[in-house]
């Protein structure tokens, strides 16, 4: 890569950091807005109470463990500064890794810089870098996983397969929804290896079937301490969290179906069509307390059973709710109470930008599906797997953050192709003009 290319990448990273730092400084209280309780969990670890319900000594497995562990390192001395440092570092890393991911897929300088630029200025990624949530941190891990799994050399060796497995384990400890991608990815790679009878990717980036045992083994080694801890605490080797029951019930309960799903598209669960989400949550907790459900595991099982009961009793509304969740996952316009503070012109500008972005990404998906390179298929599989997970579980636009580096690469391919065709057309016209003189 020429020096000018490095300078442009550095400029893109600086722009991305400037935008995120600007959002942080415009409303610094966001850095301590602990709506997902990660600060509370990290504080408990730092104070020696272990991974426990904030403010208590009661063990929990309600949230994934990795992000709170990282937060706990500096959460007591300068919480806002430490959160900002982690998220800005993760954001810069993601931008660079997106560029590197595009280069691994044989992009030229222009296409790789476009991919990095899309991640740098993505409004959703910019906004949520200002919150103590897993979006920014987890997205960096996913990007690192993909770059590591797509080597620049001729083969994915067994040592590299072990690194891929370790990285996958870390991503699973950061957000368990990645397990769906892991299973589909392994299935795709093994099926392709068997189908081609070469046990290699067509582009020479070999991941033999036997190497998946290494990936799986190292993944389990990384996740094992979390599972063993939960086995000791709850009597069950939980490798994910006890948050799944609440997440699936939140999007599959009779109140949500009645007040949102059965209403016109765009209706928000704000109490305008019934008691509202807060009233439902209060009622749910009161019901569980009355039933004597105290531990995470008991409550998780209760909520999961209740969700599946609702799904069985209302299959048509479940289908409508699933489509609604998919729309929310890929929503292009800010919505909900938070969007009320956004000027209309900015809101629709963001919507127009995302609309064009999605069209470009779809062109990239078409290229990926026609490609014989399994790495392109893997990018599409990442996007599909997260989309499918959130058609069942609660969904909103921030849930798509981890797939945005892949989406950026897909869209950048389309941009690069369009620019190349236009330049080639201009060259042809100029050549014809010269010939006519």
UniProtKB/TrEMBL annotation:
<feature type="transmembrane region" description="Helical">
    <location>
        <begin position="209"/>
        <end position="228"/>
    </location>
</feature>
<keyword id="KW-0472">Membrane</keyword>
<dbReference type="InterPro" id="IPR050297">
    <property type="entry name" value="LipidA_mod_glycosyltrf_83"/>
</dbReference>
<feature type="transmembrane region" description="Helical">
    <location>
        <begin position="376"/>
        <end position="395"/>
    </location>
</feature>
<keyword id="KW-0328">Glycosyltransferase</keyword>
<feature type="transmembrane region" description="Helical">
    <location>
        <begin position="80"/>
        <end position="101"/>
    </location>
</feature>
<dbReference type="GO" id="GO:0009103">
    <property type="term" value="P:lipopolysaccharide biosynthetic process"/>
</dbReference>
<keyword id="KW-0812">Transmembrane</keyword>
<dbReference type="GO" id="GO:0016763">
    <property type="term" value="F:pentosyltransferase activity"/>
</dbReference>
<feature type="transmembrane region" description="Helical">
    <location>
        <begin position="113"/>
        <end position="131"/>
    </location>
</feature>
<keyword id="KW-1003">Cell membrane</keyword>
<dbReference type="GO" id="GO:0005886">
    <property type="term" value="C:plasma membrane"/>
</dbReference>
<protein>
    <recommendedName>
        <fullName>Glycosyltransferase RgtA/B/C/D-like domain-containing protein</fullName>
    </recommendedName>
</protein>
<feature type="transmembrane region" description="Helical">
    <location>
        <begin position="345"/>
        <end position="369"/>
    </location>
</feature>
<keyword id="KW-0808">Transferase</keyword>
<feature type="transmembrane region" description="Helical">
    <location>
        <begin position="178"/>
        <end position="197"/>
    </location>
</feature>
<feature type="transmembrane region" description="Helical">
    <location>
        <begin position="137"/>
        <end position="157"/>
    </location>
</feature>
<keyword id="KW-1133">Transmembrane helix</keyword>
């Amino acid at each position: 890569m020429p020096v000018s290319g490095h300078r442009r990448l550095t400029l893109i990273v600086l722009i991305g950091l400037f935008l995120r730092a600007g959002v942080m400084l415009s409303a610094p209280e966001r850095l301590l807005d602990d709506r997902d309780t990660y600060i509370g969990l990290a504080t408990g670890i730092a104070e020696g109470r272990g991974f426990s319900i904030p403010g208590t000594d009661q063990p929990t497995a309600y949230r994934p463990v990795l992000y709170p562990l990282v937060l706990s390192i500096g959460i007591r001395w300068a919480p806002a500064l430490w959160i900002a440092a982690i998220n800005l570092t993760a954001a810069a890393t993601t931008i660079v890794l997106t560029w590197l991911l595009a280069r691994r897929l044989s992009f030229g300088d222009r296409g790789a810089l476009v991919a990095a630029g899309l991640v740098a200025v993505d409004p959703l990624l910019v906004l949520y870098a200002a919150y103590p949530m897993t979006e920014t941190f987890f997205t960096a891990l996913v990007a690192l996983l993909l770059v590591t799994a797509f080597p620049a050399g001729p083969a994915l060796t067994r040592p590299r397969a072990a690194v891929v497995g370790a990285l996958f384990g870390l991503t699973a400890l950061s957000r368990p929804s990645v397990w769906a991608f892991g299973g589909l990815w392994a299935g795709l790679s093994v099926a392709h290896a068997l189908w081609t009878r070469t046990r290699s990717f067509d582009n020479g980036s070999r991941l033999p079937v036997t190497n998946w045992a290494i990936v799986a083994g190292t993944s389990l080694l990384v996740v094992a301490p979390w599972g063993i801890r939960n086995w000791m605490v709850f009597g069950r080797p939980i490798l994910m969290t006890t948050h799944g029951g609440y997440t699936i019930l939140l999007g599959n309960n009779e109140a949500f179906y009645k007040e949102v799903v059965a209403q016109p598209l765009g209706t928000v669960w704000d109490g305008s069509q019934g008691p509202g989400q807060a009233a439902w949550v209060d009622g749910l907790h009161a019901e569980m307390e009355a039933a004597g459900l105290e531990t995470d595991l008991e409550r998780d099982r209760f909520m999961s059973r209740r969700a599946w009961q609702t799904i069985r009793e209302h299959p048509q509304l479940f289908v409508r709710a699933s489509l609604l969740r998919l729309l929310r996952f890929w929503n292009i316009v800010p919505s909900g109470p938070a969007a009320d503070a956004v000027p209309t012109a900015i809101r629709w500008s963001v919507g127009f930008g995302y609309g064009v972005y999605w069209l470009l990404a779809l062109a990239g998906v078409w290229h990926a599906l026609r490609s014989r390179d399994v790495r392109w298929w893997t990018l599409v599989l990442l996007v599909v797997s997260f989309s499918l997970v959130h058609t069942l579980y609660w969904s909103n636009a921030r849930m798509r953050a981890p797939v945005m580096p892949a989406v950026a690469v897909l869209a950048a391919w389309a941009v690069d192709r369009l620019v190349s065709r236009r330049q080639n057309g201009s060259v042809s016209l100029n050549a014809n003009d010269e010939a006519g003189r």
